[in-house]
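[agent] plan:
  1. take the single chain provided in the ticket
  2. run structure prediction with default settings
  3. attach structure tokens to the ticket
  4. add a short note for the reviewer (M.T.)
[agent] executing step 1
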Amino acid sequence: MTKRPPPISNRVRELREANGNMSQASLGEAIDVTRQTIIAIEQGHYSPSLESAFRIAQVFGVGIEDVFTWEG
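[agent] step 2 finished; step 3 output follows
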């Protein structure tokens, strides 16, 4: 049985790179999570809490729908 990827995709890495090549650690600090959590989010292994998702969008000055897409 193969595991399906989560139905939520994201542009976190793209947005980090477009914003001065922000590090994963810096983004983690900005939203109060670990660098490992940012890595897991970017790789699609972990869907962030709603609060973290809004915080990520706020860091980049975009709407949450500009960061995350639900493909359900």
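[agent] step 4 note for reviewer: The two ends are 20 Å apart (CA to CA).
[agent] ticket updated
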